[in-house]
Amino acid sequence: MRLVELACHAPSVDNAQPWHWRVHDDRITLSIDRSRVLPHEDPSGRNVTISCGAALDHLCAAARAIGVRTAVTRLPEGPSSDVLATIELSPGTPSETAADDIANLRARCTDRRRLTTWPVPVSALDVLAAEAHARGTRAVPVTDKRARFRLEALTQREYVESVLGSGPTPESLALVEGSDGVIALGGPEDGLEAWLRTGEGLSALWLRATRDGLAIVPMSLPCGVDVSRAPLAEEWGAPHLLVRVAWQAIGRSALPRTPRLALHEVLSEEPAVELTA
Ligand SMILES: Cc1cc2nc3c(=O)[nH]c(=O)nc-3n(C[C@H](O)[C@H](O)[C@H](O)COP(=O)(O)O)c2cc1C
Protein backbone atom coordinates (compact mmCIF):
# COMPACT_ATOMS: atom_id res chain seq x y z
CA MET A 1 0.00 0.00 0.00
CA ARG A 2 2.93 2.28 0.64
CA LEU A 3 4.18 1.56 -2.88
CA VAL A 4 0.77 2.41 -4.34
CA GLU A 5 0.61 5.63 -2.34
CA LEU A 6 3.97 6.66 -3.81
CA ALA A 7 2.99 5.53 -7.33
CA CYS A 8 -0.03 7.84 -7.19
CA HIS A 9 2.28 10.86 -7.15
CA ALA A 10 2.72 10.14 -10.86
CA PRO A 11 1.64 12.72 -13.45
CA SER A 12 -1.63 12.11 -15.29
CA VAL A 13 -3.49 13.86 -18.08
CA ASP A 14 -5.65 16.62 -16.54
CA ASN A 15 -4.73 15.06 -13.17
CA ALA A 16 -7.40 12.43 -13.93
CA GLN A 17 -5.49 9.72 -11.99
CA PRO A 18 -7.16 7.07 -14.18
CA TRP A 19 -5.65 4.09 -12.36
CA HIS A 20 -6.99 1.36 -10.12
CA TRP A 21 -4.74 -0.88 -8.06
CA ARG A 22 -5.56 -4.26 -6.57
CA VAL A 23 -3.23 -5.53 -3.90
CA HIS A 24 -3.06 -9.22 -3.06
CA ASP A 25 -0.22 -10.51 -0.90
CA ASP A 26 2.89 -10.16 -3.06
CA ARG A 27 1.12 -9.13 -6.25
CA ILE A 28 -0.30 -5.78 -7.43
CA THR A 29 -2.55 -5.37 -10.46
CA LEU A 30 -2.84 -2.06 -12.32
CA SER A 31 -5.97 -1.34 -14.39
CA ILE A 32 -7.49 1.65 -16.16
CA ASP A 33 -10.33 3.15 -14.14
CA ARG A 34 -12.91 3.86 -16.85
CA SER A 35 -14.88 6.15 -14.55
CA ARG A 36 -12.05 8.69 -14.76
CA VAL A 37 -11.32 8.58 -18.49
CA LEU A 38 -11.98 11.52 -20.78
CA PRO A 39 -13.90 10.07 -23.75
CA HIS A 40 -14.13 13.31 -25.74
CA GLU A 41 -10.66 14.70 -25.15
CA ASP A 42 -8.86 11.37 -25.38
CA PRO A 43 -11.04 9.04 -27.48
CA SER A 44 -8.31 6.47 -28.13
CA GLY A 45 -7.33 6.35 -24.44
CA ARG A 46 -3.73 7.16 -25.31
CA ASN A 47 -3.15 9.80 -22.64
CA VAL A 48 -4.96 7.74 -20.03
CA THR A 49 -2.74 4.74 -20.77
CA ILE A 50 0.41 6.89 -20.77
CA SER A 51 -0.66 8.18 -17.35
CA CYS A 52 -1.04 4.62 -16.05
CA GLY A 53 2.39 3.78 -17.51
CA ALA A 54 3.87 6.68 -15.55
CA ALA A 55 2.25 5.37 -12.37
CA LEU A 56 3.62 1.88 -13.10
CA ASP A 57 7.16 3.24 -13.40
CA HIS A 58 6.68 5.35 -10.27
CA LEU A 59 5.66 2.19 -8.39
CA CYS A 60 8.78 0.37 -9.59
CA ALA A 61 10.99 3.35 -8.66
CA ALA A 62 9.47 3.43 -5.17
CA ALA A 63 10.00 -0.33 -4.84
CA ARG A 64 13.67 -0.05 -5.84
CA ALA A 65 14.13 2.67 -3.24
CA ILE A 66 12.62 0.78 -0.32
CA GLY A 67 14.10 -2.61 -1.22
CA VAL A 68 11.32 -4.50 -2.99
CA ARG A 69 12.05 -6.31 -6.26
CA THR A 70 9.43 -6.08 -9.00
CA ALA A 71 8.67 -8.34 -11.98
CA VAL A 72 6.23 -6.62 -14.34
CA THR A 73 3.96 -8.41 -16.81
CA ARG A 74 2.37 -5.97 -19.24
CA LEU A 75 -1.13 -6.66 -20.58
CA PRO A 76 -1.46 -10.03 -18.80
CA GLU A 77 -5.01 -10.44 -20.16
CA GLY A 78 -4.23 -9.30 -23.72
CA PRO A 79 -4.60 -6.01 -25.61
CA SER A 80 -8.37 -5.58 -25.21
CA SER A 81 -8.44 -5.73 -21.41
CA ASP A 82 -8.28 -2.76 -19.03
CA VAL A 83 -5.79 -4.73 -16.92
CA LEU A 84 -2.52 -3.09 -17.90
CA ALA A 85 0.03 -4.86 -15.73
CA THR A 86 0.67 -7.20 -12.86
CA ILE A 87 3.62 -6.55 -10.61
CA GLU A 88 5.02 -9.46 -8.59
CA LEU A 89 6.89 -8.30 -5.48
CA SER A 90 9.77 -10.05 -3.73
CA PRO A 91 12.26 -8.99 -1.06
CA GLY A 92 15.27 -7.01 -2.25
CA THR A 93 17.84 -4.61 -0.86
CA PRO A 94 16.93 -1.00 -0.09
CA SER A 95 18.75 1.62 -2.13
CA GLU A 96 21.48 3.53 -0.28
CA THR A 97 19.78 6.68 -1.51
CA ALA A 98 16.27 5.54 -0.53
CA ALA A 99 15.33 8.73 1.36
CA ASP A 100 16.44 10.94 -1.55
CA ASP A 101 14.72 8.71 -4.09
CA ILE A 102 11.41 8.90 -2.23
CA ALA A 103 11.80 12.66 -1.73
CA ASN A 104 12.41 12.97 -5.48
CA LEU A 105 9.18 11.08 -6.27
CA ARG A 106 7.29 13.48 -4.02
CA ALA A 107 9.07 16.55 -5.43
CA ARG A 108 8.27 15.88 -9.10
CA CYS A 109 5.56 18.16 -10.47
CA THR A 110 4.47 19.98 -13.60
CA ASP A 111 6.06 23.40 -13.46
CA ARG A 112 4.43 25.54 -16.17
CA ARG A 113 6.10 28.80 -15.20
CA ARG A 114 8.27 30.27 -17.94
CA LEU A 115 11.51 29.87 -16.10
CA THR A 116 14.59 31.17 -17.78
CA THR A 117 15.96 31.76 -21.23
CA TRP A 118 19.10 29.76 -20.50
CA PRO A 119 19.10 27.03 -23.11
CA VAL A 120 19.08 23.46 -21.85
CA PRO A 121 22.25 21.83 -23.26
CA VAL A 122 21.85 18.99 -25.72
CA SER A 123 23.84 16.76 -23.35
CA ALA A 124 21.15 17.22 -20.66
CA LEU A 125 18.40 16.31 -23.14
CA ASP A 126 20.41 13.24 -24.18
CA VAL A 127 20.62 12.10 -20.54
CA LEU A 128 16.83 12.38 -20.21
CA ALA A 129 16.26 10.58 -23.51
CA ALA A 130 18.53 7.75 -22.32
CA GLU A 131 16.32 7.29 -19.23
CA ALA A 132 13.31 6.82 -21.51
CA HIS A 133 15.24 4.45 -23.83
CA ALA A 134 16.06 2.30 -20.82
CA ARG A 135 12.29 1.75 -20.41
CA GLY A 136 11.93 0.77 -24.07
CA THR A 137 10.52 4.18 -25.04
CA ARG A 138 11.57 6.09 -28.15
CA ALA A 139 12.78 9.57 -27.16
CA VAL A 140 14.15 12.03 -29.70
CA PRO A 141 15.58 15.38 -28.53
CA VAL A 142 14.73 18.04 -31.12
CA THR A 143 17.99 19.93 -31.26
CA ASP A 144 18.35 21.24 -34.80
CA LYS A 145 17.43 24.95 -34.75
CA ARG A 146 15.28 24.87 -37.87
CA ALA A 147 13.50 21.74 -36.71
CA ARG A 148 12.82 23.50 -33.39
CA PHE A 149 11.41 26.43 -35.30
CA ARG A 150 9.04 24.16 -37.23
CA LEU A 151 7.99 22.52 -33.98
CA GLU A 152 7.25 25.89 -32.32
CA ALA A 153 5.24 26.82 -35.41
CA LEU A 154 3.15 23.68 -34.93
CA THR A 155 2.66 23.93 -31.19
CA GLN A 156 2.32 27.67 -30.61
CA ARG A 157 0.61 29.12 -33.63
CA GLU A 158 -0.37 32.48 -32.09
CA TYR A 159 3.04 33.01 -30.57
CA VAL A 160 4.71 32.15 -33.82
CA GLU A 161 2.46 34.39 -35.89
CA SER A 162 2.85 37.44 -33.67
CA VAL A 163 6.43 37.08 -32.46
CA LEU A 164 8.26 34.87 -34.87
CA GLY A 165 6.57 36.06 -38.06
CA SER A 166 5.96 33.81 -41.01
CA GLY A 167 9.34 32.14 -41.41
CA PRO A 168 12.74 31.61 -39.82
CA THR A 169 14.89 34.74 -39.64
CA PRO A 170 18.14 35.11 -37.68
CA GLU A 171 16.15 36.88 -34.90
CA SER A 172 13.40 34.28 -34.69
CA LEU A 173 15.91 31.42 -34.74
CA ALA A 174 17.77 33.10 -31.86
CA LEU A 175 14.48 33.25 -29.92
CA VAL A 176 13.87 29.55 -30.49
CA GLU A 177 17.43 28.78 -29.44
CA GLY A 178 16.84 30.56 -26.14
CA SER A 179 13.60 28.72 -25.44
CA ASP A 180 12.88 25.39 -23.78
CA GLY A 181 14.32 22.09 -24.96
CA VAL A 182 11.90 19.62 -26.51
CA ILE A 183 11.90 15.82 -26.59
CA ALA A 184 9.51 13.84 -28.82
CA LEU A 185 8.44 10.81 -26.82
CA GLY A 186 6.97 7.51 -27.99
CA GLY A 187 5.66 6.35 -31.37
CA PRO A 188 5.39 5.45 -34.12
CA GLU A 189 3.41 2.36 -32.99
CA ASP A 190 0.04 3.04 -31.43
CA GLY A 191 -1.73 0.74 -29.00
CA LEU A 192 -1.94 -0.10 -25.32
CA GLU A 193 1.53 -1.57 -24.87
CA ALA A 194 3.28 1.21 -26.80
CA TRP A 195 1.40 3.88 -24.79
CA LEU A 196 2.11 2.11 -21.51
CA ARG A 197 5.84 2.12 -22.30
CA THR A 198 5.71 5.79 -23.25
CA GLY A 199 4.26 6.49 -19.81
CA GLU A 200 7.03 4.48 -18.18
CA GLY A 201 9.61 6.42 -20.20
CA LEU A 202 7.93 9.72 -19.30
CA SER A 203 8.15 8.87 -15.60
CA ALA A 204 11.79 7.80 -15.78
CA LEU A 205 12.75 10.91 -17.76
CA TRP A 206 10.81 13.20 -15.41
CA LEU A 207 12.26 11.71 -12.22
CA ARG A 208 15.75 12.18 -13.64
CA ALA A 209 14.92 15.74 -14.71
CA THR A 210 13.65 16.56 -11.21
CA ARG A 211 16.92 15.31 -9.76
CA ASP A 212 18.94 17.30 -12.33
CA GLY A 213 17.14 20.60 -11.60
CA LEU A 214 15.12 20.55 -14.83
CA ALA A 215 11.39 21.27 -15.15
CA ILE A 216 9.14 19.25 -17.47
CA VAL A 217 5.83 20.10 -19.12
CA PRO A 218 4.19 17.49 -21.39
CA MET A 219 2.28 18.77 -24.42
CA SER A 220 -0.32 16.26 -25.51
CA LEU A 221 -2.54 18.41 -27.72
CA PRO A 222 -0.27 18.70 -30.78
CA CYS A 223 -0.01 14.88 -30.88
CA GLY A 224 -3.78 14.44 -30.68
CA VAL A 225 -5.20 16.84 -33.27
CA ASP A 226 -4.98 16.15 -36.99
CA VAL A 227 -3.66 19.56 -38.00
CA SER A 228 -0.38 19.02 -36.14
CA ARG A 229 -0.41 15.23 -35.87
CA ALA A 230 0.23 14.69 -39.58
CA PRO A 231 3.31 16.95 -39.84
CA LEU A 232 4.59 15.56 -36.53
CA ALA A 233 4.25 12.06 -37.96
CA GLU A 234 6.17 13.03 -41.05
CA GLU A 235 9.12 14.64 -39.32
CA TRP A 236 9.27 13.05 -35.85
CA GLY A 237 7.78 9.59 -36.27
CA ALA A 238 4.32 10.21 -34.76
CA PRO A 239 5.34 10.84 -31.14
CA HIS A 240 2.74 10.19 -28.43
CA LEU A 241 3.77 13.26 -26.46
CA LEU A 242 6.04 16.28 -26.77
CA VAL A 243 7.91 17.13 -23.61
CA ARG A 244 9.21 20.62 -22.85
CA VAL A 245 12.36 20.80 -20.76
CA ALA A 246 13.56 23.97 -19.00
CA TRP A 247 15.59 24.89 -15.95
CA GLN A 248 13.73 24.86 -12.65
CA ALA A 249 13.28 28.22 -10.94
CA ILE A 250 14.91 28.75 -7.58
CA GLY A 251 12.30 28.71 -4.81
CA ARG A 252 10.25 26.19 -6.73
CA SER A 253 8.76 24.64 -3.59
CA ALA A 254 6.35 27.60 -3.47
CA LEU A 255 4.41 26.10 -6.37
CA PRO A 256 0.97 24.85 -5.18
CA ARG A 257 0.70 21.08 -5.63
CA THR A 258 -2.11 19.31 -7.45
CA PRO A 259 -4.26 17.17 -5.14
CA ARG A 260 -4.41 13.37 -5.21
CA LEU A 261 -7.37 11.06 -4.65
CA ALA A 262 -7.50 9.26 -1.31
CA LEU A 263 -5.87 5.83 -1.36
CA HIS A 264 -9.17 4.01 -0.79
CA GLU A 265 -10.54 5.56 -4.02
CA VAL A 266 -7.84 4.01 -6.18
CA LEU A 267 -6.99 0.80 -4.36
CA SER A 268 -8.72 -2.37 -3.32
CA GLU A 269 -7.37 -5.35 -1.46
CA GLU A 270 -8.48 -8.58 -3.08
CA PRO A 271 -9.94 -10.32 -0.03
CA ALA A 272 -11.87 -7.14 0.87
CA VAL A 273 -13.25 -6.94 -2.67
CA GLU A 274 -14.36 -10.57 -2.54
CA LEU A 275 -16.23 -9.94 0.72
CA THR A 276 -18.11 -6.89 -0.53
CA ALA A 277 -18.74 -8.17 -4.08
C1 LIG B 1 -0.22 11.90 -20.69
C2 LIG B 1 -0.11 13.27 -20.08
C3 LIG B 1 -0.44 14.39 -20.83
C4 LIG B 1 -0.34 15.66 -20.29
N1 LIG B 1 -0.60 16.76 -21.08
C5 LIG B 1 -0.40 18.00 -20.59
C6 LIG B 1 -0.57 19.14 -21.43
O1 LIG B 1 -0.88 19.01 -22.63
N2 LIG B 1 -0.35 20.37 -20.89
C7 LIG B 1 0.01 20.55 -19.58
O2 LIG B 1 0.21 21.68 -19.15
N3 LIG B 1 0.17 19.47 -18.75
C8 LIG B 1 -0.02 18.22 -19.23
N4 LIG B 1 0.18 17.12 -18.41
C9 LIG B 1 0.55 17.31 -16.99
C10 LIG B 1 -0.66 17.05 -16.07
O3 LIG B 1 -1.60 18.10 -16.20
C11 LIG B 1 -0.15 16.91 -14.61
O4 LIG B 1 0.67 15.77 -14.55
C12 LIG B 1 -1.29 16.74 -13.61
O5 LIG B 1 -2.08 17.89 -13.54
C13 LIG B 1 -0.75 16.42 -12.21
O6 LIG B 1 0.08 17.46 -11.75
P1 LIG B 1 1.60 17.18 -11.34
O7 LIG B 1 2.33 16.67 -12.55
O8 LIG B 1 2.11 18.54 -10.90
O9 LIG B 1 1.63 16.18 -10.22
C14 LIG B 1 0.08 15.83 -18.93
C15 LIG B 1 0.41 14.69 -18.17
C16 LIG B 1 0.33 13.42 -18.73
C17 LIG B 1 0.73 12.22 -17.92
From TrEMBL:
GO terms for molecular function: oxidoreductase activity. It comes from Nocardioides silvaticus. It comes from the Bacteria. SUPFAM superfamilies: FMN-dependent nitroreductase-like (SSF55469). InterPro entries: Nitroreductase-like (IPR000415). This is Nitroreductase.
